What does this fold into?
Amino acid sequence: MQKRKSTGDRGLDRLLAPLTDDNKQRLFTVTDRIKQNLKQGSKFVLAADLSTVRTILVPARNGVTAALLIQMGGTGVEDIMTGEDNFLAAFGRPNTEPARLVEKIGERYELMRTNIKKWSVGAPNQGPLDAMEILWNRRHFEADEVQKVVVRLATSQGSIVNNREMPDVCCQHLMALRLLDKTVTFQTTHDKARMQDPAVLRQRAKVQLILDEELERRLPRYESYVTVTLVDGTELSHHVEAVRGTAQNPMPRDEVAAKSRDLVTPVLGPAICGKLIDTVLGLEKVKNIRELRPCLQKA
It folds into this structure.
């Protein structure tokens, strides 16, 4: 008598049906190896084996699921972007403008409108640090020459960074670092020990953060104001209307490279970091993507 297949066996046959013979063989080889390892008492499965299973089975499962839905009478929508209950109707706002999806297609590239943080800190602090750099470039001053620093941020943004315990998020701490170091780096903004440094605390006491309702109303424009009052009575002020590194105020190439060096040099060293930057900036000349591999490995 022929053995009747279980429901599980029939489900497996249905799942494997769309696979090529090569993918079936790869799948069986991997699952046999996993079962053998488990039988031998191993509690671990190779990540590569799991990746193979997912790569083969997930598309197959999705295909079978789609076919079953159609078999059951599912019709879907006319098109993902059109027809009743389409994507825009489900996730768009009431005044969605579908035509903008193809506006300036082939002319405007969204990748070029990507925002890149100039400073390795919480987003609301980007504007105040921009302002401090601009003011210092306008007139060089030492930390001890400063009597007071007033920072104005939108209420929702300011509450995120107001006297926080994390060094890369706390606005007052970052302003103090900027006064002392004349810049901020990934290393200094993540050095929690300096939050207790008496020299930093003295400068931090000069910093006042004001939550501004008017700036809140201007969101999503992340504007900020910074006013530095010197001990001689001089006031230096700057209004940041567009944060450096945003599409509205993009960083030039040398600033992007400087940010990369700050992040990559401690990991890969200056020589490899420099080669990586040069290679990426000349990517159109790279004939084989493998040429990037030495640029991502520590010497």
